[in-house]
Amino acid sequence: MSLDPRLLTLLVLLGSCQSAAAPEAAELEGERPNVLLICIDDLRPELGCYGAEHVRSPALDAFAASALRFDRHYVQFPTCGASRYSFLTGQRPSRPEHYGNGAFESLRGRSAADEPVATLPGVFRAAGYRTVALGKVSHSHDGRARDGESELPGAWDELPTDPGAWREARHLLHGYADGRARELGKSPISEAADVEDGSYPDGILADQAVAKLRELAATEGPFFLAVGFFKPHLPFAAPQRYWDLYDPARLPLSPQPSIPEDLPAVNGWGQSGEVTSNYAGAGFDDGEWSLEERRHLRHGYLACVSFVDAQVGRVLDELDRLGLAEETIVVVWGDHGWHLGDLGLFGKHTTYEASLRSALLVRAPGETTAGTSTRALVEALDVFPTLTELCDLETPAGLPGESFAPLLPRPEASHHDAVLSYWRRGRWLATSVRTDRYRLIGWSDPISRQAGGVELYELEGPGGPFAGGMERENVAVIEGALVDRLIRAHLTR
Q1: Residues of the chain with pLDDT under 70
Q2: Which conformational region is residue 344 in: left (phi greater than 0), alpha (psi within -120 to 50 degrees), or beta?
Q3: 224 neighbors 330 (Cβ within 8 angstroms)
Q4: From 80, 233, 296, 349, the catalytic residue
């Protein structure tokens, strides 16, 4: 089947919008809520509150009981830097660097003639909020570029992350116990040290977040505090007691461990070098994962989920203790998903459900119907306009996302009819379209204007319960008319 030329054009051009400048600082009218944004690296929606009974996530489960759980939240990119850039600027990709971990570099060295790019914390800062980022909120591990300047110019009042025993913030993401840093390709993929939580970076980060909350509670005016936790990102390193919560032999394996059928030559499937190349003893030496290796990687990932859950719980408990919960909007956001054996893969960096679907929990006092969930399709781009609406701030013009504030009291309502995600593999660009029932993926080369592969998967039957469907069989060739309809419906807006 040949690729519809409209899809090729749309994949190349991507329909990007430029945002207007952030509004000028204005005097607050009445009491505006604080915002606590908790970003968690690589957090797929495999938690107790998402129905995964084998996962020990008591803090996030308790928070979900007071929040709205989003069952179909999709990020724009299956990699940290690009996903967080899109999330914090509210923009779809418009330049090649927006597809990778160097996306934030596009904000630096801009000329006075360039139209300014609004950022989520920048809009809040301009409106009089105290803006603070701790940990990995943008792509770097303390919010700073290599020259020490902010990755988000003009966005933060403070970037106070203390690397502690790791000495440099760049070691925090891949840190082992008590200040040891990763040696690329030599360090182990996992560690279970018999230490306290504070021997790992996320334990220290939770200490800093608790201290900052106390400081902000004692100051006048609203705050926007973003805390970016590192786990469950690789390496799977956490205190032994979190590993002890699980018996690896009893952990369920992926219900879909096979490669999708009938993949075209250019496709979204591929093993992650982040897993196979960056660590010693990761497995996959013979080109496949053994059962023991699969169980160990799942065990390590979930141990890190439980570890970071405990740290998030400490921050949320402090918010309650300080009496701030009723005046603070809390967002818990996973920057993308992660394959845990799904489709025969471990890692992210694919155009599929396991990479693009992530956890999202939102509590807005006076707005959220507590302990509910929604099947509405939402994307990470929607968080920016939602927060500005909830806090009665002017939303920058041109943001492609749509506020999901109406879902908070009415989770049964609908939102998008489709959400879009993006990826780049070599010279090929992909747009991945998720509808209520299908995932359509199209590949193109923007230089030669050459069409690549087309993939179409049915993920859910009509009216069936949502159970996190996975891509099993590419039916693009035999469902050409359906591909054409999806293109017309969702890629010409």
Answers
A1: 1-30, 111-114, 286, 461-468, 492-493
A2: left
A3: no
A4: 80
- With contact defined as beta carbons under 8 Å apart, do 161 and 208 qualify? yes
Active-site annotation holds for 296: no
Domain hosting 86: range is: 33-416
- In this prediction the pTM is 0.93
Domain-located, residue 159: yes
pLDDT at 468: 54
Q: Active site includes 80?
A: yes
Catalytic residue chosen out of the listed positions 73, 98, 139, 349: 139
Distances, alpha carbon 27 to alpha carbons 20, 40, 218, 220, in Å = 20, 33, 20, 13
Residue 462: its pLDDT value, please? 53
Q: pLDDT at position 233, please?
A: 98
State the CATH number of the domain containing residue 334: 3.40.720.10
| Residue-level pLDDT at 493 | 52
Predicted pLDDT at 446 = 84
Residue 326 within any structural domain of the chain: yes
Domains: count for the chain: 1
